[in-house]
Write a structure and sequence with these properties.
The chain is mainly α. The protein is built from ten helices and no strands.
């Protein structure tokens, strides 16, 4: 089992090597785009936030660029797997396939998070200790798992290419402006907060912002993120297994 997982993971990493230039370009361009077109202009609007707005948005930029990169890389890759006849004929369990996808997602997200963090923190002349940086990613880990599961489910059920593009744009807008990455959640109406305050992605952004501000995290929010991630992982395993069974006949 473990051998199969690492073989599949090695295959994923080899595929990524063919897109090194594209990957590296997007890795730097995504956070830079968010910083130049969102963080800097909005810093003239949110002038009473502590720490200063451009520093406050560092977690949001790192988080958004990370999950957006995951969608760009993982979605077509998973889509190809689902439509491929090869995976349904080789003696590899669907569990191994999913675990290799998760491992690839964790590696990819960690690299993207680090690149985004060092780029934006250098632009802000900001210093954060290595332990705080690692803690940020540990806090983000359940959200990465949650979002990876969403990508897998979308890849299974979304068929239309136009719908794919609409979905990508919607995710970008919602995660950027609806979960506290660039607009503080306390600026939203109470009814909106009741809906999304405990959403795993918004909980993650808020806790990373807490670390960035040298404050204690909301441990209950982290537990909520873990619970949601476990639940959607179980759902994903069931959905993926059903997809394989459908393709087997």
């Amino acid at each position: 089992m473990i051998n199969h997982i690492f073989i599949l993971l090695k295959k994923e990493l080899k595929l990524l090597k063919g897109y090194v230039i594209t990957f590296m370009s997007l890795s730097f361009l995504l956070p830079l785009f968010l910083y130049l077109f969102f963080s800097i202009p909005l810093s003239f609007v949110f002038t009473n936030i502590k720490p200063i707005y451009k520093v406050w948005t560092l977690p949001g930029i790192c988080f958004i660029s990370t999950i957006f990169m995951l969608f760009i890389i993982l979605y077509p890759n998973i889509k190809e797997k689902i439509n491929s006849e090869f995976l349904f004929t080789v003696p590899i369990s669907y569990n191994n396939i999913l675990i290799s996808i998760y491992l690839f997602s964790f590696v990819l997200s960690f690299v993207q998070f680090l690149l985004s963090f060092f780029l934006i923190s250098s632009l802000n002349n900001q210093y954060i200790e290595v332990l705080d940086l690692l803690l940020m990613y540990i806090i983000m880990f359940p959200a990465v798992l949650f979002f990876t599961n969403l990508i897998i489910i979308f890849a299974i059920y979304v068929k239309n290419k136009l719908m794919n593009q609409f979905l990508l744009l919607s995710i970008f807008i919602f995660t950027s402006f609806g979960l506290g990455a660039f607009f503080p959640l306390n600026y939203y109406p109470e009814s909106y907060l009741l809906l999304f305050k405990y959403f795993p992605l918004s909980c993650t952004i808020l806790n990373i912002q807490k670390i960035n501000a040298a404050e204690s995290i909301y441990f209950s929010y982290y537990i909520i993120s873990i619970v949601y991630s476990i639940l959607i992982t179980v759902i994903t395993f069931i959905v993926f297994q059903d997809k394989i069974k459908d393709r087997s006949f």
